[in-house]
């Protein structure tokens, strides 16, 4: 079956990438069902950043207004010294960013983003289905779940994250790469963060530690991610918790904004940071990977969700190309997306060390390089994934 006829598509994973994939493919007339291992979908996680490259896709999907209404449009980017709090680099965002890159830069609570997608999905993902195996023939693919059920589809899309069961079918077993770093995450009411009502995308950089801070939910809450080196903390879970006193102690001696913010969080999450080596392949004849299942990346470029959304645009367009066989569509998707995501994966690894330099010549040199930041990130934020698609001859 070529992709000129409606396809039966099984998406494994009901996160941002999985739901966005289903919405995009349903809009093109395909029959799509999303399966997830969770027994219920809960409001876990904290903030995520959406750049112009992701928002262009969401706008075309008709989701842009709902996302904007749930988010905060970040008006500036600032880098602060860890101890004094002094700003050593800032640049406007807001309208400037929108005009430069073709869309806004937003901070949004993951739960709010998930709800926008659930509303657009028009139905409920099928929960309690943990994929354990995938089999395929020339004409179909079959997913087996831990509860004993199986599903047959024309295409299976693995959007099931870093520890993807679908990926093992595509690539064989591989190991996640531990960064020897973990992060504390939390949300604080804006009135409990000094200067919170003026915050945009805010970095605090210091020796062996850094924080990324920005508003979500229309500026009601300040989201923080506080990164620390820790080879002992290896638990990777969005639901794992930490004592807020641990985070305060980890940033002892930092400026008042940081310590006050960390002291006022009601619930602190903590998880270890992993990625994987870039994959040699993402697809077989009837099965492909998307988002973190295909290219898990450390969060130091703020591109995890954006790259999943870019994947959605390219994959949905190719699967809907008249006369293009499924296997060829999946192959083209992989060939288009792999070089870009690989480059961002590797850049995300390198950013952590750059953000955690001690005071001195190396930090001064980094701070000087920030003057070119808008130009240096233009290839990421200004990208339109539709430009990667060429007509099929």
UniProtKB/TrEMBL annotation:
All copies of domain FAD-binding, residue ranges: 9-345
Cofactor entry: FAD
GO terms assigned for molecular function: FAD binding; monooxygenase activity
Keyword hit for Flavoprotein: yes
Protein name: Salicylate hydroxylase
Taxonomic superkingdom: Bacteria
InterPro entries: FAD-bd, FAD-dep_Monooxygenase_BioMet, FAD/NAD-bd_sf
Keywords for the protein's UniProt record, in alphabetical order: FAD, Flavoprotein, Monooxygenase, Oxidoreductase
């Amino acid at each position: 079956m070529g992709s000129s006829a409606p396809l039966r598509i099984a998406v494994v994973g009901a996160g941002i990438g999985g739901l966005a994939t289903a919405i995009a493919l349903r809009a093109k007339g395909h029959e799509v069902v999303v399966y997830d291992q969770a027994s219920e979908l809960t409001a876990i996680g904290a903030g995520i950043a959406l750049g112009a490259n992701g928002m262009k896709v969401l706008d075309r999907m008709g989701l842009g207004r709902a996302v904007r209404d749930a988010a905060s449009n970040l008006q500036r980017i600032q880098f602060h010294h860890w101890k004094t709090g002094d700003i050593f680099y800032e640049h406007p965002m807001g309208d400037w960013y929108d005009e430069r890159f073709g869309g806004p830069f937003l901070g949004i609570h993951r739960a709010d983003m998930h709800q926008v997608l659930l509303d657009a999905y028009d139905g409920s993902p099928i929960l309690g289905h943990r994929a354990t195996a995938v089999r395929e023939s020339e004409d179909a693919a079959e997913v087996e779940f831990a509860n004993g059920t199986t599903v047959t589809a024309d295409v299976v899309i693995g959007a099931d994250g870093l520890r993807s069961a679908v990926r093992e079918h595509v690539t064989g077993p591989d190991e996640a790469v531990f960064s020897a770093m973990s992060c504390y995450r939390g949300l604080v009411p804006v009135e409990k963060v000094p200067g919170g009502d003026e915050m945009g995308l805010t970095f605090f950089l210091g020796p062996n530690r850094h924080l990324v801070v920005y508003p979500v939910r229309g500026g009601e809450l300040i989201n923080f991610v506080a990164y620390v080196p820790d080879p002992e903390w290896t638990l990777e879970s969005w639901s794992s918790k930490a004592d807020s006193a641990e985070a305060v102690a980890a940033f002892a001696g930092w400026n008042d904004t940081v310590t006050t913010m960390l002291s006022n969080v009601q619930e602190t999450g903590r998880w270890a940071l992993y990625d994987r080596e870039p994959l040699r392949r993402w697809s077989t004849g009837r099965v492909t990977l998307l988002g973190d299942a295909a290219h898990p990346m450390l969060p130091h470029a703020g591109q995890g969700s954006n790259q999943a959304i870019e994947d959605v645009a390219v994959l949905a367009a190719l699967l809907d190309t008249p006369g293009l066989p499924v296997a060829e569509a999946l192959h083209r998707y992989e060939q288009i997306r792999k070089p870009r995501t690989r480059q961002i994966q590797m850049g995300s690894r390198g950013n952590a060390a750059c953000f955690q330099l001690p005071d001195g010549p190396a930090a001064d040199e980094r701070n000087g390089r920030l003057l070119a930041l808008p130009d240096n990130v233009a290839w990421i934020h200004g990208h339109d994934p539709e430009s990667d698609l060429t007509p099929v001859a």
